[in-house]
Fold Lipopolysaccharide export system protein LptA.
Amino acid sequence: MKTFQIHYIFFVFFFIAVTSLQAQEQKRIKIEYSGFLTTSETKYPGAKVLTRDDSGQIHIIHEGVNMWCDQAIFYSKEDFIEAYGNVKMKQGDTINMDAKYVEYSGKTKLAFASGDVVLTEPSSVLTTDTLYFDRAKQQSFYKTGGKVVRDSSGTITSTIGRYYMDVKKYQFVNKVKLVNPQYILETEQLDYYTENALAYMYGPSTITGETSKIYCERGFYDTKSDMGYFIKNSKIDYDNRTIKGDSLYFDRNKNFASATNNITVTDTLNNSVIKGHYAEVYRAKDSVFITKRALAISVQERDSLYIHGDTLMVTGKPEHRITRAFRNVKMYKSDMSGKADSIHMDQQTGLTQLINLSRLAPKDNFAVKRRPIIWNVGNQMTGDTIHIKSNAEEERLDSLIVFENAFIISKDTIGKGFNQIKGQRLYGLFNDQNQLKQVDIIRNAESIYYARNDEQKLIGIEKSKSANISMFFEGNEIIELKKINQVDGTLFPESKYPANATQLSGFDWREEERPKSVEDLFTDDPPLDLPIIKGLEPYVPQDEFFDDQLIDRAEEAEETNKSNNLQNPSKASRHIPSKDSIQNLKPDLKTPATLEKAP
């Protein structure tokens, strides 16, 4: 019984040993077919020279890889082969490589291919002059320029490229250019996934199309769906508009772009800028929608106009832009400011309309209505609707009209009283300094006027009614008041003027609401809560293709050669740098310094 057990155990160990030896044998390069076999110790010491015949090419096998060629130099002791002429290498059903020349080591599992190299996988075709293929890591690598063609995405070229076969990902570095019929993408590094055609850009990057140009330093682009997401110094040049923001989204098929946080949209044709923290741009409709601290700036050399509202919309062709501001709108220039529910500005005609909506009026019949309001120097003007006409070319105000319930108030230059005129409609004209020079009140005019002599002494307070009133200004002072078809009027000494008659019906002095700077436009806004930009991870430099594992495999082959008294350095190390020299290669293999650094 014991003898049987001993024999059984011996048989098991023998079987394992034989199986292990067979497995090791199977890991060596095998010549499946060769037409002719010769040797040449002078030219190829220790090697077999294999040549094809008319029936077919030389067929070589190693661990799931099949290779065919016209001629091969096989160093069986080093488990190394050199293949020449119409070389084809196939791994499974997905990876095919063609080249004029291939070296392959069964010890390092590294293939080196040169001469019209073509690597084909199901979604793309790579061509280059020199390619490294590490079967242990399932990665291929070139560093002297290459091109990848994918039908739906276009053609990608770069100086350095790496293909990760397990995840079907290309990583292109240095002078990367993707050419598509619709656009050209240029960047410093592009990570590209062949199965879903997704591209990730790092470093200064541009996407240039027929009608738009995108710039970013970190971004994502779906080359199949033509849509992308961009962050870090991103901007889009789009039909005479430049859109900047912390993050940008772009859909080429829908002609749509959106931006989030710290947005600036510059109209290069009309010399205007709008700002905010969320924007949408519809190219087909020539419209921009912007909100969250929205601000429109009509840039002028002498004095720009600022308009702020909850929401801004800019629509129309470049030659005829319309700007609309909604909800609690304020405007500011150094010589004029205003408020309204909404503002409508036509940049071509120079007409700005201030409008209040009746549905927003107070329900209390005794409450004073919050009508649109304009402040110009020392004058306050209100009415149901206000139109301001300006000359954009000469950068000056031209005229204004106040429709219905016109009311103009100016503080007396010395005393505490107020000059007041009201009527059905108001027409105003401006001088070259954008100051009112004449105001006409039409129909049912009423006035309270503090009359002073040349020494600015108060003569009296006049209260009157007439059909129309004309006022003439010099600087901030009324120098003449004309009444047409006066119904009645009385000049009272200040001491005899009725104390309860110092204000006309509807008087509403609103100086505390007056914006006196750009910052004052935002005083009524709620606290700003901006979203945190997420989505794209910072750039991470690629690992070395010639990493420690590959170098260790080459050094192991060196030791094997030494122990077998074979030639050193081994052929397996022919294209693999040593650990000492790898540092000298890093500038060639790593990403150029122009790429961003991880924050």
Observations:
- Residues 1-26, 585-594 have pLDDT under 50 and may be disordered.
- Residues 2-26 form the longest helix (25 residues).
- Helices lie at 2-26, 548-563, 582-589.
